[in-house]
Structures are given as C-alpha cells and as structure tokens.
C-alpha cells in the first residue's frame, strides 16, 4: 500500500511537469568538436562566438 502511494505521487509529479514545462537557462555549455581541435584553436573558436574556453572537462578523453 505504501509503495502504491509513492508510485501515485511520482506519476502525478511527472504528469504535472510534462503538462507545465518550465524554461531552463544556463550560462555554461559543454562543446564537443567533430574533429580533433587543439587548445589554441578551441580558444579562438570560443572567443569568436562570444564564449570563454575553460579547457577540457575533467573526465574528457581528449584532455
């Protein structure tokens, strides 16, 4: 019975979030290039488009 109540609450919550989507804004992006790009080239591309290159992510296979 307890599990059914939890499941019902979960279903109602998901249903409400689908019916009333909220916009999400962020000021940071993770960009993946289709080809190998060195750090200087990545910095120039970011600067050209108004972004700041923070370097590769910690778990990146390209670091």
Automatic annotation (TrEMBL):
<protein>
    <submittedName>
        <fullName>Amontillado-like protein</fullName>
    </submittedName>
</protein>
<dbReference type="InterPro" id="IPR038466">
    <property type="entry name" value="S8_pro-domain_sf"/>
</dbReference>
<keyword id="KW-0732">Signal</keyword>
<feature type="signal peptide">
    <location>
        <begin position="1"/>
        <end position="16"/>
    </location>
</feature>
């Amino acid at each position: 019975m307890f599990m059914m109540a939890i499941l019902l609450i979960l279903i109602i919550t998901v249903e409400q979030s689908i019916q009333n989507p909220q916009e999400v804004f962020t000021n940071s992006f993770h960009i993946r290039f289709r080809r190998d790009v060195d750090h200087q080239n990545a910095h120039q591309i970011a600067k050209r488009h108004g972004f700041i290159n923070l370097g590769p992510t910690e778990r990146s296979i390209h670091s």
